[in-house]
Design brief:
single chain, five-stranded mixed sheet, 11 helices, 447 residues
Length: 447
């Protein structure tokens, strides 16, 4: 990637400094001296009265934007929910915003603390083959999208005569307007396209009293596959992410199927594909469901089930969104556990797993697990375990089953809780509801 600035030329190296791709399909795509414009966080939100592209015609230009939200790192927890990532802070929604503007390209600035994962995750996730949904027309999407490292961004801003810190502060200020960088970018990619098929897999246990009402358990069965070798290993196994979730959902299905009493409501077990490609399997299912969305009482999603051992806490990602929290808290209390919201809300985990696609359809969801307070070894051990996984194993070949490091007590604990929540709902007439300040809601709430 070549960037011509007011003070000279900046040459960025692929993978080391940037990654780019296209969602349009086969062909050659390029940025040819496209004007770079800093567009804050790349967010358009009527709810928040916010438009990072206000007043700027983006045709013929490439946007440079920050990951996450304007509220991140501030002291006001009500401004864009503070450190809690909102819908617009997630990278895929920034992609959707730019598609509407006719821009040449989009470059998201990666910073580990704001993204929630290190640069090597970008390298492993955004290089090599990428999947998409075949029946989605992407011909008019922004041609080139990608990421640049924070070091590359800082050098770009410096060579463009801009102070990087000052620009971030400006982007967090209401009324922000896009700022041309007096720089032009050029890069070229050639994409090939092949038709491939993958499958979602679903099993259904019919209910005895209300078979038309469903509990839906989900987990994704895919991972990255074969990718860039790290320490000589190119197989990205995905043992925790998400063989653990898949196997736990299968175990829950077996518990329902072998129970002496059959549930009043039907229970469906959906294992989806292509989550690592952008939640594609669950998106496809939510758009073309075999069970009508308005007949799904709730979705219980599992992604990366706790391998560290039993926990005192139940951390609910997206806590405060729906009354699923209350049902989960009741079952957690029976296990001698307390309930807390996610402790790293800036990482936007709610938007990073399959329950998000069902939430967008108005279906209340549960995405939870023991994470932060180990039953025997305490919070420091739990944090170290999670931090080590993110730093060394997440989206890396090192995500292997480790018989010396894994403790199945935590998986059993969370699996039992998920079964208990589902059993409670499957034998009641309760329809969980969204809470008033959530971003979601049922189109028609059944009673």
């Amino acid at each position: 990637m070549r960037i011509q600035t007011k003070s000279g030329e900046l040459n960025l190296q692929p993978r080391k400094d940037f990654v780019v791709h296209t969602e349009r399909g086969a062909g050659q795509y390029s940025l040819n001296n496209s004007d770079l414009v800093f567009c804050g966080f790349g967010i358009v939100s009527e709810k928040d009265n916010w438009n990072d592209y206000a007043g700027m015609d983006m045709e013929g230009k490439t946007a440079v934007v920050l990951v996450n939200d304007p509220g991140f790192g501030g002291e006001d927890s009500t401004f864009f929910k503070g450190n809690t990532m909102t819908f617009g802070g997630r990278w895929d929604n920034k992609y959707d915003f730019i598609d509407e503007l006719g821009a040449d390209g989009l470059l998201i600035i990666h910073q580990t603390s704001m993204a929630g994962y290190p640069w090597f995750v970008i390298q492993s996730s955004w290089t090599g083959p990428k999947q998409g949904l075949a029946d989605m027309n992407r011909e008019n999407d922004t041609a080139i999208k990608g990421w640049i490292t924070i070091d590359a961004a800082q050098e770009l801003f410096k060579m463009s005569g801009q102070d990087f810190t000052a620009m971030i502060n400006a982007a967090r200020t209401p009324g922000f307007k896009p700022i041309p960088l007096e720089a032009k970018v050029s890069v070229q990619i050639e994409a090939e396209s092949n038709i491939c098929e993958s499958q979602n897999v679903i099993g259904i246990l019919p209910g005895q009293q209300n078979p038309e009402e469903y509990l839906l358990y989900t987990a994704h069965w895919d991972h990255i596959g074969v990718g860039e070798p790290i320490d000589g290993d190119s197989i990205y196994n995905g043992a925790l992410d998400n063989a653990s979730g898949t196997s736990t959902v299968l175990a829950i299905a077996e518990m329902f199927a072998t129970a002496e009493q059959k549930p009043d409501r039907s229970v469906a077990f959906l294992l989806v594909t292509a989550e690592e490609q952008g939640l594609l399997g669950s998106e496809y299912y939510a758009e073309k469901p075999t069970i009508p969305n308005d007949q799904i009482v709730a979705n219980l999603n599992m992604d990366g089930v706790n391998p560290a051992g039993e926990m005192k806490d139940l951390s609910i990602t997206g806590m405060g969104y729906s009354t699923m929290d209350d049902i989960a808290a009741e079952e957690a209390k029976k296990q001698g556990r307390y309930t807390i919201p996610e402790q790293e809300p800036e990482k936007g985990y709610f938007y990073r797993s399959d329950q998000f696609n069902f939430a967008k359809k108005g279906i209340p969801v549960l995405y939870a697990g023991g994470t932060y307070d180990h039953k025997e070894k305490g919070k420091a051990y739990a944090k170290e375990f999670t931090d080590t996984y993110i730093a060394k194993r997440y989206h890396a070949p090192a995500d292997n089953f480790d018989p010396e490091d894994w403790n199945f007590g935590g998986m059993l604990q969370d699996g039992q809780l998920y079964f208990n929540v589902g059993w409670h709902l499957a034998n009641s007439d309760v329809w969980p509801e969204w809470k008033p300040d959530s971003e979601f809601g049922r189109p028609v709430l059944k009673k």
